[in-house]
Amino acid sequence: PCLSPGRDYAMANLSVNLYTVNEPWLYSILWCAGVQSVTSDSSHVLRKVPFPIWLMPPDEYHLIWITSDLISFIVIVGVFIFQK
C-alpha cells in the first residue's frame, strides 16, 4: 500500500509546514492527510475546528466515482444509440 508523503517524511524524521491554509475545509483535508503543521492568516477560524469537518472512507469515495462514471457511460452510449 502507498503511504502519503507526510507519513514518509515523518518516518524520515522530517517535518512539513504548509502555508497558507485559511479555509476550514482545506484544513480538514490536510488534517486527514496527516499534515503535521500549517500556517494560516485565519488561525482564529481554524482554532474553532476541533475535528475534521467531513471524512469519507477511500473505498466509499471510489465506489461513488465508479458508479457515476458507469452511469455517465451508459447515458452517453444510450444517446448515441437513440440518435441512430
From TrEMBL:
Keyword Transmembrane applies: yes
Alphabetical keyword list: Glycoprotein, Hydrolase, Membrane, Transmembrane, Transmembrane helix
Domain GP-PDE: 1-50
Keyword Membrane applies: yes
Compartments where located: Membrane
Cited SUPFAM superfamilies: PLC-like phosphodiesterases (SSF51695)
Main location per the UniProt record: membrane
Membrane topology per record: Multi-pass membrane protein
A GO term for molecular function: glycerophosphodiester phosphodiesterase activity
GO cellular component: plasma membrane
GO terms of biological process kind: lipid metabolic process; positive regulation of neuron differentiation
Transmembrane segments: 62-82
Coiled coil: none
PANTHER family: GLYCEROPHOSPHODIESTER PHOSPHODIESTERASE DOMAIN-CONTAINING PROTEIN 5, GLYCEROPHOSPHORYL DIESTER PHOSPHODIESTERASE
Family: Belongs to the glycerophosphoryl diester phosphodiesterase family.
UniProt-recorded name of the protein: GDPD5 protein
Annotated source species: Alca torda (Razorbill)
